[in-house]
Amino acid sequence: MSRNEIPIFFSINNQYAPYLSVAILSIVDHASSNNHYHIIVLEQDLSEKNKHILTELGTDNVKITFTRINDSDLQKQMVGEHTKLKGDYFTLTIYYRLFIAKIFPQFDKALYMDADIVCNTDIANLYNIDLKDNFLAAAHDTFAADYPQTVRYAEDVIGIPIDKYFNSGILVLNLKQLRNHDFTDHFLHLLNKYHFDIMAPDQDYLNVICRNHVLHLPQKWNTMPTIHGEKVTDPRIIHYALFGKPWHYDHVANENYFWHYAKSSPYLVEIKQAKATFTAANAEKDHRNVRYLQQKALSLLDNPITFKKIQEKTNEVAL
């Protein structure tokens, strides 16, 4: 790793290759010639065709490589019913970010970003934020704050004040500090000991384990669609989280940034096709998933085993 190399992790399957292409194009567009950017795609059975197409988006100072994570090995470390993902909007790839510190010891610091993002600035500006001794930097989760049910979930099940509950889709990771505190092993210990029933598997673990070591970022670094949250006028990174996808819906907040880069994507035909074939039934399915999350949030309030209760009882959840 060269001194000015910036590692940027994504995790995708084949379904998300078109949208990762848009994210990559936005990163390339703002990349400074003074830096070297290394995009590392943690992938789940990504096709050779998609790897080739995405690799071709690289430039002299933006390198794109792929690391295959063996899901069977991962699942062996996460045993039991608690590893089953809730709903159809999560795949096992969401867990990959929790293993970056352990799998990539050559990096002391890195960015992790979901593939449904667009950068509106040189990503080095985020990477260069001084983490001090914090484990990570992240921004507020505005989706959770939009609904009273998920506010109660964050505060009474996870045990995090809603204004401190962060979204894990964009992270600045202090990998050295995470390794120094055996973060991954601690995560696996909690996962396999308590079998927590939670809504956002990776995000909730990150919030509770790292709660005392988080640098909270301004919302401009993770600008998500929101009903009641802060309307960001100068977004640095736009995050089309959960159900706010411009390749599904019209009039999505900040959709112009997405389509600006999508028009140059080698997947433009597929992206347009995804929107053209997104039906009213698909939209209703999204609405059902939102209602499911709201109901699930309330159903967990009386669970005898929650992060908040175990932390208060044993003080062993947070590092």
From TrEMBL:
Q: What keywords were assigned to this record?
A: Glycosyltransferase, Metal-binding, Transferase
Q: Where are the transmembrane segments?
A: none
Q: Which Pfam families match?
A: Glyco_transf_8
Transmembrane helix keyword on record: no
Determine if Glycosyltransferase is one of this entry's keywords: yes
Give its E.C. classification number.
2.-.-.-
Q: Which GO terms fall under molecular function for this chain's record? A: transferase activity
Give coiled-coil spans as residue ranges: none
User: Which top-level enzyme class is recorded in the Swiss-Prot or TrEMBL entry?
Assistant: transferase
Q: Which PANTHER family is this protein grouped with?
A: GLYCOSYLTRANSFERASE 8 DOMAIN-CONTAINING PROTEIN, LIPOPOLYSACCHARIDE 1,3-GALACTOSYLTRANSFERASE
Report what the protein is called: Glycosyltransferase family 8 protein
Write down the species: Loigolactobacillus binensis
